[in-house]
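Q: Structure for this?
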Amino acid sequence: MTDLTGTWYISPTPFTGDGAVDPDSLRRIVDAASSWGADGITILGVMGEVADLTSAERETVLSTVATAAAGRIPFAVGCSAPAAAVVRANVARAVDAGASAVMVAAPTLLRDTDQIAAFYTAAVGTSPIPVIVQDEPAATGVTMPVSALLAALDAAHSTVVKLEDPPTPPKIGRLLAQRPGLTVFGGLGGVSAYSELRRGAAGTMTGFAYPEILKAIRLAFEAGDTARAAALNDRFLPYLVFEGQVRVGLGIRKEVLRRRGVLATARTRALNPLPDPATLAELDDVLARVGLTPGIEPLELQ
Amino acid sequence: MTDLTGTWYISPTPFTGDGAVDPDSLRRIVDAASSWGADGITILGVMGEVADLTSAERETVLSTVATAAAGRIPFAVGCSAPAAAVVRANVARAVDAGASAVMVAAPTLLRDTDQIAAFYTAAVGTSPIPVIVQDEPAATGVTMPVSALLAALDAAHSTVVKLEDPPTPPKIGRLLAQRPGLTVFGGLGGVSAYSELRRGAAGTMTGFAYPEILKAIRLAFEAGDTARAAALNDRFLPYLVFEGQVRVGLGIRKEVLRRRGVLATARTRALNPLPDPATLAELDDVLARVGLTPGIEPLELQ
Amino acid sequence: MTDLTGTWYISPTPFTGDGAVDPDSLRRIVDAASSWGADGITILGVMGEVADLTSAERETVLSTVATAAAGRIPFAVGCSAPAAAVVRANVARAVDAGASAVMVAAPTLLRDTDQIAAFYTAAVGTSPIPVIVQDEPAATGVTMPVSALLAALDAAHSTVVKLEDPPTPPKIGRLLAQRPGLTVFGGLGGVSAYSELRRGAAGTMTGFAYPEILKAIRLAFEAGDTARAAALNDRFLPYLVFEGQVRVGLGIRKEVLRRRGVLATARTRALNPLPDPATLAELDDVLARVGLTPGIEPLELQ
Amino acid sequence: MTDLTGTWYISPTPFTGDGAVDPDSLRRIVDAASSWGADGITILGVMGEVADLTSAERETVLSTVATAAAGRIPFAVGCSAPAAAVVRANVARAVDAGASAVMVAAPTLLRDTDQIAAFYTAAVGTSPIPVIVQDEPAATGVTMPVSALLAALDAAHSTVVKLEDPPTPPKIGRLLAQRPGLTVFGGLGGVSAYSELRRGAAGTMTGFAYPEILKAIRLAFEAGDTARAAALNDRFLPYLVFEGQVRVGLGIRKEVLRRRGVLATARTRALNPLPDPATLAELDDVLARVGLTPGIEPLELQ
């Protein structure tokens, strides 16, 4: 079974200049993520704009990545939906495509968190592959207290959480205090990655455009070299914060991936599909300040 | 062009005993709605559990109703989605299937209501068939002030609103004060139908299980017989309120449609797919009190 | 100790024509509630516009009612606040004034419902008088699952809930299934009072302008005469629903209390402090249809 | 008239070891803010835990600061409330105490943003001192689109905004594009201060525990030395981000102010009034990394 830990890379969904899903760029994402040392790839998540794709487009993403990743790198598939029956259908398709895991958040705008366990039981209680429980209040409108997260994990027979309810470090602390041994991924663009590791996170699962940085922070931390982990965090924090902005951050990330030679375009499915000139000017400035260059080859980090 | 006014019936999505979409029941819904005098049928709306269907199931609903309704009764199709590109794809499919109109709500959890106009322009600005702008804060998490509703209507080249932001009567009043001549449908199960007519609503578009009642109220009101309209409202209000309950109301409605011989089962896609015994006992009581009987034949209302 | 059950009357806060708190009308409210047979009065609740009063005005309300009610009718005091320290101060003042109970809701916009117990412990864990736990998501923005409600009750050493999370009847059912013997008051203007009684509610605590009706429904139900209870509910439902509208309902209620001779004016602290002409016209119509007359003397209900 | 621009300091409300408001520490805050070069002090804001104070405590804060600040440094007073009448009372008291300005946010949980103008007209339309319109969706639950912000400003006869709706830089850009010349303060702990200045912000108004840093960034930026401004931002960003965390950030800030010799204790009115050990350990680490020392004397920034 795939080791669900480390530095996973959440793939964006790339679009061509006319707005269609771009399989060529998707294949380059798989190549790049592998060469950058990602421990796995997650597709069809929030930052993959899954809610903004037609079902045919979701199938294109899934089948393209499944083929490109086969035998090279494990992949997980976002399968969230408001109804358990739809989650089950999504999970079945992911399993069929060879996914290593599925990721499922609470149903959008769910009001009664006492229903969390029944939902996860119905949705993924019999999943043949591991389930990652995603705690993502910004996208779902649902805040899960730790008690509800634990109920979800039990119902899903899962020991893996992607935790994105800020501030994440103390919540990771509370969660692990109640359930030691869980695998907790941070997300949110890696802005709090170092703090999350300090609280016991097993890694990050996010779409930050330089996953090499997050991996280097983690490896230094795991090796006990907290000074190096902190220094890497602090050096790149201006860009982590800049890319990590809500709503506009995805366009920044895609622009950087375009500059790295991975994506053909920076387009998103937002109403304004490309970053505006002021954002691009500040991006140039931030990247220069932290010394990031746009090559597709893995960063060499001293 | 179809007259978008009157008493439209919102179709639920029927399920078989094992939870699959049930085309036979869907065809009976079209038959029944026609015989009950509905001016049109709306499918794939919130009460059609559209968010809880796979895309294949949505296609089943659309194609089944399109075939059954062709030449007999106009139908409108819910095409809402968070991204304009997906709405456009949904609209294209609805047009292809022969729909008379499409219905589009604000994108779920949209925060900046100044973006409403740009969204509707991108989503339905070039729709070849009429657009119904749906104001449904409970399902979308987005409250639209009247100014945003008007911006949406302009962007959609639309003059038709389905208004479900309670309390609906004063909002209808405010909307029509600023834009006389709009067609405003009430919804919300018809609980406020009579009050909405008093404020200028053109009718209701809802899934209430006895649309004959809502039609009779409207016809009496339009004929100037407000005493009869009010008396019909008051007589059936206990059941209107009972069926109109949030969350549990859909199961009640489907149970009544089952008793009327339209649906094979009362199943929904909720975690508890059938009404509980206490709800069923109260349903029996309410129906008896207001004198409603379960036949599929149109109610004869004195 | 006061019997916290039955039909409690939630007092509005009356204003004079120039918008000041009106003690004379407050005293008439106490007189009227007593004569109408209310089992108690609750002040400084959501419908008492407590959030819209200065602290001096809240003190005026409290001291006026305390004096007027002393020895005649028990009263409860809304003491909700975002911080436990402020709740404690409010409770101390209520105790000092002779209140029979305090009512406390969750802190506004609380996100982590696992903190509910700690909040109630800190806020009212040592209250010398009974605590009513209020479940009011519309006013607080906080949805409490049944598990959180039970934790709040335990922390508050309370056995009394005012439950206003719609649909209330099934939530009352779930709550009492887990904790038989609780006293559950319905609220929400009494719109679901009869259904709530069927599910085990002990009464209603609401500001409906004719509490005699709610009391008559309850007494009939408790006497086993469900037919009479249901008939009373159905007869007056058009007005219950009309007064029960969110946001605009308080102005309607105050206008009726003005007509009954209790309040000097119908003013609220909303931006539009008085009902608009269309609302007043419909009010006349509804009252006429259900046969309600405006006297201050208790309704005689056949 | 006071120049409402620059680097304003939002005062926390200090508490003694037993949880009471601490006037001695408040006076030290005024002293320190003056010596740190703040252009003004704002009291009774969200980060001043205004919602968690009794009215007597708010009066203590106001009168203490008014006395301490008189003739030395201008101060602004948070006067937000759900009802215009209460805002008016708060404004009157602030004027009486000698405030230079008042700050008013949208009413908590307001749904209809078309009512913003009427609210500000009723609340502060006749304020004799300048009004700062606060855009703070996290605390109010109300997202104001730019159109609503402009309506609020017009109604308040104001040209000053405190903008805290993330991501703040692009919203500042949109706002100033529509209304050049506005004074826009950033907030949110200064995390985005440098980006906000790039978009046209006039300064920051926040409670960051080292306002000297924010002032130095602004002065460098205004002098055209963007390299220095950016370098200062990047150097201190690890601490800006750490203190800027939602919910837990206030406790961190107060702990640092305690270490700087300003506050007697780090207590807040949260359920857990002091930072936990893991947070304190990380605080030590972050401060050491960025080279911040705890003296009350103004930082000397190269």
